[in-house]
Amino acid sequence: MMAVAKDASNLEEMAQDLAQRASEQLKSVFLDLLNSGVDVGGKLLQLECSLSGLRDSNGASSSRMRIASMELDTQVSPPRISWSPFDRQTALTGLKHVPPRKRRKLTDSVRERAPGPDQELNKNVLTSQPGSGVDTALRKELTLHGQPTPRSTVEKFIDGIWQSIYSGIKLDPTEVIEQWQAIESSGQPRLLTDTETGSAVRSTSVAQTDFGRMNVLTRKVSQTSRTCRSLEVIVQAHWAQCFDDRVVELTVSLPRENAKKQTIVEACMDFSWSEKELRNKMGVWRGYHDIALSGGWAALVFAGMGLYRFCKYRSSFASSTFETLKARKHRFEVAADTLHPRWRQLLGIIGGPTERKYIGHPHDWVVASPGDEAVPLPETYHQWDKNFSYTHLDEANIDADVWGALDPRTVSSPPPDGVYTCDTCGEQQSDDPPANHCSCFPNLYGSVKAGPAPVQVFRTPDGKNNGLVACCTFESGAAIGEFVGQITSGLANLDVMVGQTDSTTYQIWQGREGNHTRFINHSCHPNSEYERFVWLGTQRIVLVSKGVRAEEEITVDYSDVYWQDLDKVCLCGHAECRYDKRSRILPIAPAPT
Length: 593
Ligand SMILES: C[S@@+](CC[C@H](N)C(=O)[O-])C[C@H]1O[C@@H](n2cnc3c(N)ncnc32)[C@H](O)[C@@H]1O
Hints:
By secondary structure, the chain is α+β, with helices and mostly antiparallel strands. 32% of the residues lie in helices and 17% in strands. Among the domains are: 2-93, no CATH class; 153-362, no CATH class.
């Protein structure tokens, strides 16, 4: 496959687009070849797509760029197809160098069953003592499980929806109204400060500078523009439905073809467009309509930048695409309703329902089987505890009855100069982002908070009750969350994490309060692991991805210590499961605590 670009500035965008489409087609070319029965003589075949630019931005002729490549190895049985994705860095500038990074990984047990009265509390699973089973983990940023992760166009489209729902930009129609009122009252565009709109004001003096004010204005205009764009696609999708309704209306007195023609003429008159222009737009708007119909309005409203292209080229418009979107409809709605409480008001413009369906914290809802509505979290524990409730915490809660004013996780007293240094990277740590230079887990510590982790509590189909599913990819080395709960001691016969510093042993219990890490199930082949980390002199337990794909269940190894005295069967389903054959087979996992 060869494509030619006239202008080098378009090359990269064109390459990305072609790479996406080519990668989907190359595989079927190879599969056709194999199915046709052609004898390729036990060879290694390579199929490559490249893009050539006639000249670069300086007018010089530019070289060929490899955008996709696939290998067919017929030396093995069955033949193996491997794929190299388009990588901008590789294609344009050579391989990006990612420096290895030292990490403290917990190689021993992480979760424990709190010992009963006859057991000793002596399993020091988390310890900051040197030489205690700590080793180094290297960060792999570009791969998952060491493999490139090809994503189909539909998967990328869905990724875009999740990223937009979880991005810091709130989709809120009141922003548009406030901006409009400000323009009306002063007769010209005016900067609304955060105080005027009731939002949190940044405490630093930067907020008072021209730059700070410009940041606020730019954010507001971006938000406004995004909201208007959402209104636009809602209206256009609804227009496609109204078009069909009008055709049906006219069909009462006209043959169907004539009715359609007349509807087009009516629309061309109102839009002042030629029929060709209208048909072009109609194709795209019908795409918006089909997305809203299958994935719900949230799928359309939060679709990322690729929406127009997705609907214009329609290369993925197959029934399977719409089934895929339909299966995620309620998942999108749970996230959209809880993170953007006012987004449904946008539907008011077409007379659609504006009432929120899912109220509360994103993890107050358990997403269920594809197509089913989400259920309130407490309901999923009623069979064990009719009064179940769960409080979502951002920070650990220290049990004052046990510890008083002391935080047992403290590993060092405040340095005389007040400056904490990271044990891992050696850089200065601070809760004040401009003063912080440690970027070990930037989504958890020291940076401006990026919002909640893109994960959902889901109903497992195999008897583990709930679990945690990733909405977006977590690259290997990325933090999924801190193990947050009640910092206590002396609990018995409950699931706890045991932590230990040089001087103290403590328990973290997530039974009634904590965060999303509480819902993570065990697997004998997990895709995440716990690492200990010290932030501002306090020990933290961080769940770190080993390469979690979007839509995959997040799992961790609870360890032998957890399972050894437990009368439970492991339901992880892995071929090398260590605890699937226990003395007693239970139909459903006992009450998670
Ligand atoms: C921390 S909770 C995990 C979330 C839990 N599934 C829930 O619904 O709340 C730990 C409990 O989940 C269940 N569980 C986790 N992993 C499991 C596995 N691989 N096999 C069986 N049960 C598991 C056990 O009941 C365990 O006590």
